[in-house]
Amino acid sequence: MKYIKPVGLAIFFAALVLFTALLFVGQYRLTDTVLQEAVSEAHYPILKEELAPMMNETYSSNFAFVQDFNRLFGAYNDELRLEGQYEKVIWDDYAFSVTKASSIGFVADNKLLLLLLTIVAGALGVLMYVLPTQTHKTGGLKHEGVYHSSLKSRGWVGIVLGTYLIVLYVLLYWFAEYITNWVLLADPVSMVLSSNPASKWFMYGLIYTLAILVMGVRMFRKHRGNKYQTLRTSSVMFFQLAFAFLIPEILVLFNKPWNDFKHIWPLDYTFFFEYRVENMVSSGAIGMFMLIWGILLIVVGVPVMSYFYGKRWYCSWVCGCGGLAETAGDPFRHLSNKSLKAWKIERWMVHSVLVIAVVMTVMTVANYFSGFGILGDATGVVHQWYGFLISAAFAGVIGVGFYPLMGNRVWCRYGCPLAAYIGIVQRFKSRFRITTNGGQCISCGNCSTYCEMGIDVRWYAQRGQNVVRASCVGCGICASVCPRGVLKLENGPEHDRITDIPILTGNDSTTILQ
C-alpha cells in the first residue's frame, strides 16, 4: 500500500507532461474540403481567396499555422475596417474551427490512445494518490501541516499550479486555436454522446467533470463516516455528471438545445438572450419546458428552497462551481481571507455583480420586445463586456486559477450573482442557521481556519451565537472539524434565529456581521 501514492503521483505527472507537450506536436494542412467544413457557406468563397497562400501547405506546428491564418484573415478584416466597410467584415472567429479541422498526423490519428494516456491516466493517477488517504481525526485538521506545505500555503508548488491553471483558462477563453490538440482528444467521447466532434467547451466539461468525480473520492476518504459530507459530495458529483455533462449532450444528440437544467439565472446570464429564447421557443415542447423551468427556478425555486434550506441547497449540493470548489479546491479552503476588510470588499463586489446582471437582463428583455428600437446595439456591447470581465476573467481565470493563492471560493464569495441572490434570501428570510454551544467551545480555531467563505466562526461559537451570514454556503466543514461538537447545521423556526450581539471592529465602532 505504501507504494500506491508515489506511483499514482508519478502517473499523474507523466500524464500532465504528455498532455502539455501535445500543444507542441502535430501537423496541419488546410485544404479546400477542410475549409468548406470549418466555415459557413457564405464566408467560404471569401476565405478561400484570402487564405490561398496557406492552401495545401503542411505546417509542422500549431503556432506556425495559427500565425499565418491570423495574418491573412486579419489583413482582410483590417482593410475593410480602414475603408469603413464594416458590413463586410467577418466577425466570426474561425481560427479555432479551421485549425482543428486542419490537424493531421500523430495527434489526429491517435485521439483515443492519447486520451487514455493523458486525461484518463491522469485521473487514474490521482485516484491512486487519494485512495490511501487517511480519514481525519476530529479536531486534528488544524495540525495537518497545511501551513507548511508548498502546495497549500502559497508556496512555490502552489504558485506553479496557479500559474498553470491561469494560463490554461486564458488559452481556453481567448486563444483556443492553440489548444486544438487538447480538444481533439475529447472527440471520441463527444462522438459517443452527441455524434458531434468535440468543441473546446466539451473538452473543458470533460476535464471539469473528471476533476469533481476524482477529487470527490478524496472527500469520501477524508470524511469517511460523516454522513452529511458523504451525501453532499455525492450530490455535487451526480449533478455535475448527469445535469451538466451527460444530459446536455444527449439533448444535442436529439437536435435539441444544449441546456443545463440546474444552471439558474443570473449565474446563467445568457438565459434571456435573444438567441437562447428563440432556440427554446423553436424547439417544441422540450424547448418550452426549458424556458418555463428556468423561469420557475428563478421566481419560485430559489426563494422557496432557500427559505427552507438556506444557501446550501444550491451552493454546496447542486452548483458545478461549488462542486469543483468543494472537491478539487478543498485542499486550499483555509487560504480564504478572514479579515474584516475582505468581508467589506466581498459585500460590495458580489452585490455589484448582481446589480449589473439584473440591469443587463432588463436592458436585454426591453430591447428584445421593442424590436431593438430602444437601445439598438448597446445590449450587445454590454453582453460582450460582461462575458469578458465577469464570466471569463472573473469566474474562470481568477475563480479557479486563484485556488492555490486565495482559496477555493473566490468566485462564489466575491463575484457569483446567484450566490448574492440566494444569500439575500438566506440572510433575511430563511430557516437555516448554524447553531453553537458556547459552553463547549475550546477556542481551537479549527472552524474559522477551514471556513472557505472567510467567516470567523469561532467568534460566534465563543459567544454561543447562531451563525447567520449571507455568505455561508452550509458546507458543514466547520462542524466536521470541531473537536467538541459545538457547531450544528439546522433548519428551524425563524424566531430567535438572529441575535443582536455586535462584533467589535475598531475603536468606538461596531458592525453586525450576521
TrEMBL record:
It comes from the Bacteria. Residues 432-460, 463-492 form the 4Fe-4S ferredoxin-type domain. Keywords: 4Fe-4S, Electron transport, Iron, Iron-sulfur, Membrane, Metal-binding, Transmembrane, Transmembrane helix, Transport. The chain crosses the membrane at residues 7-25, 112-132, 153-176, 201-221, 233-254, 285-309, 348-370, 385-405. PANTHER family: FERREDOXIN-TYPE PROTEIN NAPH (PTHR30176:SF3). This is 4Fe-4S binding protein. It comes from Pontibacter toksunensis.
